[in-house]
Write a structure and sequence with these properties.
Layout (H helix, E strand, L loop, with lengths): L2 H6 L4 H7 L6 H21 L7 H21 L2 H4 L3 H5 L25
Helix pairs in contact: 3-4
Subunit structure: Homotrimer; associates with NifD.
GO biological process, one term: nitrogen fixation
Protein name: Nitrogenase-stabilizing/protective protein NifW
Length: about 110
């Protein structure tokens, strides 16, 4: 089984850290697991594995998980904003223009009689 197939079969954040042999603090992982795995996924998607050996892919995945973990140790979920809902509520992002209220002239209204 390739390392990519192995990673696809994992079910918990702890399994990723164990398989890739990346040290972690359980109390940190308990709180940040989804953010860390999402960030690792972003790193994996941007990587080019064609032509790499299984050992090179393993090493790259290990580095990516370690980097994802370090991102959240050095920062926090609100600053990193890996999930859409957090990106949409970024106070530094310009607000979307407000929809113009529909204007209805009083003269165009008809009575029910």
């Amino acid at each position: 089984m390739s390392i990519i197939d192995k990673l696809k079969s994992l079910h918990s954040a702890e399994e990723f850290f164990e398989v890739l042999q990346v040290e972690y603090q359980p109390e940190v992982l308990q709180v940040l697991r989804l953010h860390i795995l999402r960030r690792m996924g972003q790193y994996l998607v941007s990587a080019e594995f064609d032509g790499m050996s299984e050992e090179e892919i393993y090493s790259a995945a290990q580095t990516m998980l370690g980097q994802a973990y370090a991102d959240f140790i050095a920062s926090n979920p609100m600053a990193e904003r890996v999930f859409k809902v957090l990106k949409e509520h970024d106070p530094n992002r310009p607000a979307a223009p407000a929809a113009k209220p529909a204007f209805v002239q009083l003269g165009s209204l008809k009575t029910g009689s």
